[in-house]
Amino acid sequence: MVLQREQPIHFWGKGLPGENVLVEFGGATKSIVVKQDSSWGLYFNKLKASGLPLNLIVKSAGQSIVLSNILIGDIWLCIGQSNMQFSLKEEIHYRDEIKRTELAGLRFYNPSFIGKGVFNKAFTDSMIQRLTINEFYENVSWQESDSLSARDMTAVGYYFGKQLLQETGVPIGLVHLAIGGCPIETFISKDALMNSKQFSSKVNGNWLTNNQLPVWIKERGVQNVGGNDKVISDELGPNHGYKPGFAFEAGIQPLVPLPIKGVLWYQGESNAQELDRVMEYAALQKLMIEDYRKLWKNENLPFYWVQLSSIDSISYKSQLWPLFRDEQRKLLSIVKNGGMAVCSDIGAKNNVHPTNKKLVGERLANWALVQDYKKEILPSGPLPLKAVYNRNEIVISFLYSGEQLSTNDSMSVRGFSIDEVHEVGATIKGNKIIIPVTKKPDYIYYGWKPYTDANLINSERLPASTFKIKVK
User: Which of 294, 369, 381, 468 could bridge to 462 as Cys pair (CB 3.0-4.6 Å)?
Assistant: First the structure.
């Protein structure tokens, strides 16, 4: 287990009403009386990061619980859909990496969930019985990183945590609650959706027939639980991991008393298949970020996300992916203390699950290292600042260009367009891109293909984001 450093340490639980609970931790002892509703909770003073294992002892009503090997460090929440769920054993570097997973300072909380691995068919009766808020996520214990625990851990989270541990020495705890195929709506609280003028319609009536939700997730929901009167339901319809607010209530809400360092988010594929869903996504994610920051009472809670990769597949409506990637980019200027890992350079043309998660995790870690651990590195590849027309050429300037813009293959720069379709010639001049034109276009596009071979990088070889910006 890892407990969050430099924040009051909160212990809570259930007991017999009126009984005294004695808690020993970190050389201190505190006691409290169990309330009539059977709950108790108390706080210990904040502690600095430490790899020295501590013990927690809780005694009450003649019984005692001992938890050992507890470290003080940073807890990161890893959520999203299948690309966050994608395990280390599936990752392209697994055979070599599994030999390097013995990391005492890296810990995992990695529960399974009801419906994992079940796709185009009905849930079994035993699954239906456990499709509740309290039983949706499996009850598991924290694990120390080794060859057994790491193999089933989120690969993105693992590489992120390992990078932070190696660069800072701070113990890292990863809480992994991703749900393959899920929409963003399931990880946003029902209250936040209901109180949003723009999105209240998403929590109005049965989610399986709500036209404000992605079509694909409703189809999967019908396959899994549709027509089954044994499924626990409420005013929003039957319980399911894709139901608006359900993952939040089952996984996020119970965590809220536990201080965390920040959130990693890799999701979007299920919301990128219809134009209406694409165009609302940035606002939805902003709502989610605001919701989490309010719940954890931290207006600067770090929130880092992965931009969708490259793909060229009709089944995933990939023609919308350039627009979706740009909506994700725009969020960088909307929310503070956020960051986005670009991975369009490592996409798989016909596979929605690219296998190189090492670079994804490390690129997320770059943002955290800069913004949360004060490392002086580039957090990202080039992000566009502005495009200016002057004397038959467009000059594009960038943030995070580093010492010099270049290309990932030492070839001429590729990926720029003035009409979304046809590529135009461009040259690198220091930290700027120069594009000759005969007249001023309205917009400049970069990487505007579902599967792009755009090759612009910065001096740290980090790739530029897909973008569409107005020419001034």
Answer: 381
For the entire predicted model, the pTM comes to 0.96
DSSP for residue 95:
H
Residue with tokens 């319609």: 201
Delineate the domains of the chain, giving CATH numbers in brackets.
2-71 (2.60.40), 73-371 (3.40.50.1110), 383-470 (2.60.40)
Neighbours of 189 (CB within 10 A): 21
| Phi, psi (rounded to 5 degrees) for 455 | -130, 15
| Contact yes or no for 2/106 (Cβ under 8 A) | no
**How many Å separate Cα 12 from the centre of its chain?**
27
Strands 262-266 and 63-80: parallel
Nearest by Cα to 372 from 305, 300, 306:
300
Long-range contacts from 419-426, C-beta under 8 angstroms, 24+ separation: 419/445, 420/445, 420/448
Does the pLDDT value for residue 313 go beyond 80?
no
pLDDT band (50, 70, 90) for residue 314: confident
Distance from C-alpha of 121 to C-alpha of 334, rounded to nearest angstrom = 40
Between CA 217 and CA 221 the distance in angstroms is 6
Q: Is the pLDDT of residue 142 over 80?
A: yes
Listed in sequence order, the residues at least 6 apart from 14 whose beta carbon sits closer than 8 Å to its beta carbon are 34, 38, 39, 40
Rounded Cα gap, residues 115 and 118, in angstroms: 5
